[in-house]
Amino acid sequence: MKVIAELGINHRGSSAIAEQLIDIASEAGAWGAKFQYRAKTGFYQATDEIGDEILSREIDESYIDPDEVLRLTARIKKKGMSAGISFFKFDDAADFGDSISEFDFFKVPSAELLNDTLIGSLAELGKPLILSTGGHSEEDITRAVEATKSIPDVMYLHCISNYPVLLGNQQMGFVKTLKEMSGSVVGYSSHDQDWEVCLVAAANGATVFERHLTLDKHGKGIDDSSSSDPAEFIRLCHLINAFEDIQADGRRELNQGERINMQNLGSSLYASRDIAAGEVLNEDNTVVKAPRKGLTWGDVKRKGLTAIKRPMGAGTAVSDLHFTDPKPPLEQRLVDFCDEKQLSIPLRLHDAKQLQTRFPIRNNELHLSYEEVGRFRDAMADNLSKLDLTRHYSIHIPDYIDSKTLIDPLSDDEHTRHGSRRIVETCVDLALELTERTGAGVPIVGSFSRLRPGGKKPTYLQLQDYLTEQGKDRGAPIYPQWLPRIAWYFGGAEVLDMFCRADDIEIVREIGMELCLDLSHLILSANSAKENWLDWYNALIPLARHLHIADATGVDGEGIEFGQGELGDPAPFIEGPGRKVLEVWQGHLSEGDGFDNAIRQLGENHG
Length: 607
Hints:
By secondary structure, the chain is α/β, with parallel strands linked by helices. It contains 22 helices and 24 strands. The strands form six sheets. It has an eight-stranded parallel beta barrel, surrounded by six helices. Strand 5, helix 5 and strand 6 form a beta-alpha-beta unit. Helix 1 packs parallel to helix 8, helix 14 crosses helix 16 and helix 19 crosses helix 20.
């Protein structure tokens, strides 16, 4: 998808305004920006009619000479966009001399669709050529397409030459006709009152969008009313640039946010009393409650489940496990492999005993909820008794301080700042207690995603100072975690702006900020930026003091099974010093089957 900002005559002949429009287009995410050019003199022969007089005056007042157009073209290209220009007659192109090659593409405006001389001359310049079809009958458009099909890199724009186009006059179905007729790239040149019409064009197969950009759509210029102001143009680029992701590939796949929401919003069966092995589940010994942590009655009936094989305590969610025999512990050879490579698995306080029984490996990472942190704060010894203190631990600080608030120890909001700092301080207290009891250091990992109003670098410096003071200076280092650009927070997706972009890499390297490098998050964030994640890995790995390993795909496919995403061979990442946590998405379910699969994959292939 390509959005082109048409500067047209909306710059009013002012280079300063043209620069503003170029900068806006770049910040919005436009693919390109283009000028219209008519020679200073000689374009209009007669101006006797009122319309001609008005248009002639507007064009004369909006003239920018070729040298200045070329300077502005260089600005467009420096901003990472393609630079284009429209000519109404080829003689005007001579004003640019050999510098005509500076433009990345050319456009033939609608009024000149049948100008064979202009089209042929521009085509000979060897750059992509755009033909706009406004103001012409289908017969004329067909003839023009047939005459130009052989031109390399030619594309056609459906267009209605009204200024503005009122809603209902778009004839947008013609986009499909034009695409079938030409067999080429087809787009839409929009003069609509409603910029959202471009989305209808996209749904009909348009992939190039030209939209006039103005500082004031209510201004006095003749193109203002059929243009977009900066806010509208930003929305246009935002949605068009995301259109292919929105459409996807026609399949229906669940994302992690949906899975979490179905768990949180759904209900399942729970034991209403203690149930002995051999009993059959019925309405007398079960109750349906939220959240959906186990099976529903529909699941039980569909799977033909009857008597349970394991005893259940009152309040326990009914799961497939209750109808199976207990799973044996991980084989010693795989335990030895995990300990040799310092592989770790995440566990929660409520499933620690179960997972530590099945996985008797040395390293574990405590993934704590804000409620569990509170329990450690209120009763440290009681909650430590739930852990095997012969293991070595790391701690993952919860992302939330309550059900509505993400952690942010630098926040201006007193509730957020105070709650965040209490959680961080308690996690440090727990790390120091575990260090004393286990004899091993306890690194701490946290997701810090809230950008301060002062900008990125000041935020990073403040966060670094805070984490050093609260963690490293007390004997328990805290490592901020590299994050995905799109994070699943509060049951939905949120676009982050810390620890997820190329400029973040520059800052953390400049200030020497030590990190937890999450490879799954790294892949997702690099994909979002359309960058090579391995380049980002090589830039960040010198700062990594803790590693989370999982596969990933796309911009939000997090924690998938090894080999199903873009990680490739995980062997290089499990070598070397330091602990590596296997961050398999929901690997703890079914007594850790996801962790078991990951360990077996690694052990069998790399043990």
